[in-house]
Amino acid sequence: MSLLSPALIIELALLGMGTGFLAGLLGIGGGMLMVPFITIILSGRGVGPDLAVKMAIATSMATIIFTSVSSVRAHHKRGAVRWDIVKRLSPGIVLGSIVSSLGVFALLKGSWLAVFFGAFVSFSATQMFLDKKPKPTRQMPGTGGQLAAGGVIGFLSGLVGAGGGFISVPFMTWCNVAIHNAVATSAALGFPIAVANVTGYVIAGQGVQNLPGGSFGYIWLPALAVIALCSVFTAPLGARAAHALPVSKLKRVFASILYLLAAYMFYKGLTS
Where do the domains of the chain lie? Predict the structure, then answer.
C-alpha cells in the first residue's frame, strides 16, 4: 500500500491550506486544527489511539516550522513583529520545549493532555472574548520574567502540538501589546517553538514500536510534506486578513476558535 492515496493527498492539502490561513490570521500555527484530523487519519491506518494522538501532535508541530516562516515574512513587511519580545521570550521557549517534548510528552497519556488543554484554552478564550482591558500601566515583564513566560509557552506548546499562540497572544495583550502586534509576534515565536519541540519528538520517538511507514521518530513525514507545502501559500493571505480586521472582531474570532478547540479536546479526553 502506498503511503498516501490521491484522496488522502487532497484531504491533507485542504487541511494545509486551512491551517496556513489560520497561522497568518491568528498566529496560532494551525496546530490544534491539524491534531484531530491527523489523529483520525492515523487511526484509520491501524495506528493505536495513544500513538496516533502523539504522532498527530508531533506532526502538526513540525508543519509550524514552515507556516511560521511564511506567516512572519508577511507580518514583518507590515512592521508588526515585536522583535524585542521575540528575542527575550525565545531562550525560555527553547528550554521549556525541550523539557516538554523530550520528557513529559512521552510519559503522559493523550487523554490527560486533552482535558488539561481544554481547561486552559477555555480560560484564555473567555479572557479574550470578554475583552477585559489590562491596567494601562501594565507592561511586558523584564528579561527574567519574559524568560520564565517563554518557558511556560514552550512547555505547554510541546504538550499539545500548537505554535504557542493560544497562550502567547493572550499574555501579550494582557501586557498591553496591541492585538495585531501580538498575533504577528506569536507567528515569529512559532519557529523556535517548533524547532525545539520537533527535535525532542524525533529523539523521544526513536525505538518506539508500531510506527507507520514514513515515520521519523513521532513525526509522520508524508503528512508533513503535503500539509507544509500547501500551508506556506495561504499563511500570507491570513496575515493580510489579520491587518484588515478591526481589533474587537479579531479577538472574537480568535476566542471562538479556541472555544471550539477546547470543546473537542474535552470530548476526546473524557471519552478515550
Answer: 8-267
pLDDT digits (tens, 9 = 90+) for 195-222: 999 999 999 888 888 888 889 999 999 9
Q: Which residue has the higher pLDDT, 138 or 73?
A: 73
Single-letter amino acid, residue 174: W
Contact between 166 and 32 (Cβ < 8 Å): yes
Q: Is the pLDDT of residue 1 over 50?
A: no
What digits encode the pLDDT tens for the residues 146-163? Answer: 999 999 999 988 887 777
Predicted confidence (pLDDT) per residue in 44-66, tens digit = 888 887 888 889 889 988 988 88
Residue carrying the nine cell digits 487532497: 10
User: Beta strand 219-220 with 215-216: parallel, antiparallel or unpaired?
Assistant: antiparallel
Q: What is the DSSP string of the chain?
A: --SS-HHHHHHHHHHHHHHHHHHHHHSSTTHHHHHHHHHHHHHHTT--HHHHHHHHHHHHHHHHHHHHHHHHHHHHHTT---HHHHHHHHHHHHHHHHHIIIIIHHHS-HHHHHHHHHHHHHHHHHHHHTTPPPPTT-----HHHHHHHHHHHHHHHHHHT--SHHHHHHHHHHTT--HHHHHHHHHHHHHHHHHHHHHHHHHHTTT-TTPPTTEETTEEHHHHHHHHHHHHHHHHHHHHHHHHS-HHHHHHHHHHHHHHHHHHHHHHHHH-
In degrees, rounded to 5, the angle at the alpha carbon of residue 239 between the alpha carbons of residues 224 and 264 is 55
User: Which residue in 216, 209, 213 sits closest to 1, CA to CA?
Assistant: 213
